[in-house]
Write a structure and sequence with these properties.
Blueprint lengths: L1 H77 L3 E4 L28 E3 L9 E2 L5 E3 H18 L4 E5 L4 H11 L22 E7 L5 E3 H8 L1 H6 L5 E5 L4 H4 L4 E7 L4 H8 L3 H8 L8 E5 L2 E9 L2 E4 L5 E4 L4 E7 L1
Bound molecules: zinc ion (ZN).
The site of zinc ion has 5 residues, from strand 6 and strand 9.
Length: 332
């Protein structure tokens, strides 16, 4: 019997041992969990000040520091290292910003590169006649613009009807077109024509099917991309409708003029004609340049009379204004 009891006791003892083990394991798990929790919370408490305070203090430390950096950048902008070049190195009659109007006569310098477009590549624009001529900077920009137009739309409807004219050609043109006194508002006097610059041309629109349209009237409908993008290729409409008091010419919406970047973007976006733009620039010497943004590029533009002040390092462009001054442009 005793032998029967024994195993039963042993069994009971074994059962008890098992449950004790289970309790111990549970307790151990609990203790470990608690310990992990405590360590985590102690760690987080201990880490908290390190995370919170330094950024707070670094915020206050950094804010003035950041302002200092900006200030020094601004200073660097206005205090761009410059050097002076004698104005005899440049010609006020050369450059994309020459001003020609009823008060300012112009003759193209004899060494200017004048191209007869009939002899040049012009696959993406058409010519009304074989005598259209342009100076190289205007022709190059015209090719870039019409190529981009054709790439985008398959066909560019721009037709050039007139480009460079010398004094004699302008006299002929004037005599042909000025019949009544009122016509004088639309035609420049010989010697005082924007066409003498070789940077200007008049256009029409010429459809694939051969139909021809007035640019001023149909541009938005038939050449929308051009209307929105000519400014990015250095062109402006030289005689906007509401600028007669400055230009002396009633609106001539089909007369393009190459003035170059970034000037074309500023003039078009701000709605100022060349006369107004040069007035604005005269208020901006090299140490207070006009800042112009063109997409992601920033340009600094300033005006010089007398000696020409240019950046000491890097590229820049200088254009005469045909009235005794120079415009310097720098892309940052
Ligand atoms: Zn014209």
């Amino acid at each position: 019997m005793a032998s029967k009891y024994k195993p039963s006791y042993r069994r009971q003892k074994t059962v008890l041992t098992a449950s004790t083990k289970a309790v111990i394991v549970m307790l151990a798990v609990l203790v470990v969990t608690l310990a992990v929790f405590l360590i985590k919370s102690v760690m987080s408490q201990a880490l908290k000040p390190d995370i919170v305070y330094p950024p707070e203090s670094s915020d206050t430390d950094e804010t003035p520091a950041r302002t200092d950096t900006e200030a020094s950048t601004d200073e660097a902008e206005t205090a761009m290292p410059v050097r002076t070049v004698e104005d005899s190195r440049f010609d006020t009659k050369e450059g994309a910003l020459v001003l020609v109007n009823r008060d300012n006569a112009y003759t193209l310098p004899s060494d200017a590169e004048l191209l007869t477009l009939y002899d040049e590549r012009h696959e993406n624009f058409t010519l009304d006649n074989i005598s259209v001529k342009l100076c190289a900077p205007a022709y190059d920009a015209l090719c870039r613009m019409t190529d981009a137009y054709a790439d985008r739309s398959g066909y560019c409807p721009l037709m050039l009807i007139s480009g460079y004219r010398d004094g004699a050609e302008q006299t002929k043109y004037y005599e042909e077109y000025v019949i009544n006194e009122s016509d004088k508002a639309y035609v420049e006097l010989p010697g005082f024509s924007d066409h003498h610059t070789g940077l200007a041309f008049d256009v029409r629109l010429y459809d694939k099917d051969g139909a021809s349209y007035s640019y001023g009237r149909y541009a938005t409908e038939k050449a929308k991309w051009l209307v929105e993008n000519y400014k990015y290729y250095g062109f402006v409409i030289r005689y906007p409708a509401n600028k007669e008091s400055y230009t002396g010419i009633s609106g001539e919406s089909n007369h393009f003029r190459y003035v170059g970047l970034p000037h074309s973007v500023y003039m078009t976006d701000k709605g100022v004609c060349l006369e107004e733009y040069l007035q604005i620039l005269r208020r901006h010497p090299y140490d207070d340049p006009l800042k112009i943004e063109v997409e992601h590029d920033e340009y600094l533009v300033w005006y010089c009379q007398g000696d020409v002040i240019v950046p000491r390092d890097g590229d820049y462009e200088v254009s005469g204004d045909n009235v005794g001054g120079f415009v310097v442009s720098v892309r940052k």
